[in-house]
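Customer ticket, subject: "Can you confirm the structure for Auxin response factor?"

Message body: Hello, I'm evaluating your service for our small team and ran a test protein. I'd like someone to confirm that this is what the system normally returns, since I don't have a reference to compare against.
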Amino acid sequence: MFNNGLTSNFCCTSRIKLALDDTFSKTLGFISDAVE
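Agent reply: Thanks for trying us out. I re-ran your input and got the following:
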């Protein structure tokens, strides 16, 4: 039970991290476009 909860928590964290990375790279791309 504990292991199962830990795994789903990790998956959720990974999904959030992916979403943050995606947003971050889009923001960086937007900023570099604005600078040029």
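A couple of notes from the result: Residues 1-36 form one domain. The mean pLDDT is 81. Feel free to reply with more questions.
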